[in-house]
Fold this sequence. Notes:
By secondary structure, the protein is an all-beta fold. The chain has no helices and five strands. The protein starts with a strand and ends with a strand.
Amino acid sequence: MWKISYVSGIFCQMKKDSYLLVVQYSSNVHIVNMECFTCYSVSA
């Protein structure tokens, strides 16, 4: 089961029921959780 999680303007596709922590510093995005296989910014 895949699901999309919206965190701080970042969309992430998640594996199973895993959650991830997205820490955003200025324009840099730090992803904490290897369960996230795809993350991308949705801001213009």
